[in-house]
Amino acid sequence: MPRPTKCRMICRFPQTLEFVPAKDGDGKEAVILTVDEYETIRLIDREGLSQEQCSQRMQVARTTAQKIYDSARKKLAAALVDGRPLKIEGGEYRLCNGMNRFCGAGCFKQEIHQMFQKSKGDGNMRIAVTYENGQVYQHFGHTEQFKLYDVADGKVVSSEVVSTNGQGHGALAEVLNALQADVLICGGIGGGAQAALASVGIQLYGGVTGDADAAVAALLGGTLAYAPDVHCSRHEGHHGEGCGDHHHREGQDCRHGHCGG
């Protein structure tokens, strides 16, 4: 019986999930780069880590990191040389919760969690809404505020407005994770952001307009009008550069595949 694949630790979910050549790319078969393969490229080629350091960050053997990296480089070469679209999806991974001892000082996840961590009552549900002047803000990746609603026994027991403190669109899903949000209500949102929210277990209700308080009341009453196939029209046609991206709540198992211990 083959040994189960060990999950690879991923720090940052890719901000852009699809790249298409400017000419003649749509008719060609896409190259699929897995999320863990993407992470080796980010760590080794972007951050300048050695393969040994990369393996520590991803919590796998050095030989495993080398194998993943070699596969990633070959796929990138195929996309560039053959002019094929490149998509990032799948793989055997779990997302870092900021507790990886190999990340060191300045860890993105640690900074986010220290800045935004907010406790909530046991058994409470926390709803976050992209917020501006009492309304549901329509572009997730550019929202400057979330309004948080704590719900107990089907009723809102408290609410407050939280600033995103200028966090870039790639960090907003992790901000919500640190805030312990269970649900997000928003307007437009890109595909990458949707994948990032799903990876941290946040339920999405997109395509919502109007008064934020009324939207939460409608959700609790089972009458909220939302769009299951929501997208961000502001970025339509930019091949994955949606209104935000990123990330797996602490203690969850591997996000894809059948990972072993």
Mean pLDDT, to the nearest integer, reads 80
Order of helices and strands: EEEEHHHEEHEEEEHEHEHE
Which bin fits the share of residues in helices?
25-40%
Gyration radius, to the nearest Å?
19 Å
Q: Please mark out the parts with pLDDT under 50 across 5 or more consecutive residues, or reply none.
A: 234-253, 255-261
- Label the structural class: alpha/beta
Helix tally equals: 7
Proportion of strand residues: 15-25%
Coarse morphology: globular
**Count the strands?**
13
End-to-end distance: 15 Å
The largest sheet, given as strand count, sense and whether it forms a barrel, is: 6 strands, mixed
How would you sum up this structure, described in words?
With 261 residues, the chain is an alpha/beta fold. It has helices at 35-46, 51-58, 62-82, 108-116, 172-178, 191-199, 212-221, and strands spanning 5-6, 8-10, 18-19, 31-33, 86-88, 93-95, 125-132, 135-136, 145-152, 155-163, 183-185, 203-205, 259-260. The strands form 4 sheets. Strands 7, 8, 9, 10, 11 and 12 form a 6-stranded mixed sheet that branches. It has a 3-stranded mixed sheet with strand order 3-5-4. Strand 9 (145-152) and strand 10 (155-163) form a beta hairpin. Helix 2 crosses helix 3 (62-82). The model is unreliable at 234-253 and 255-261 (pLDDT under 50).
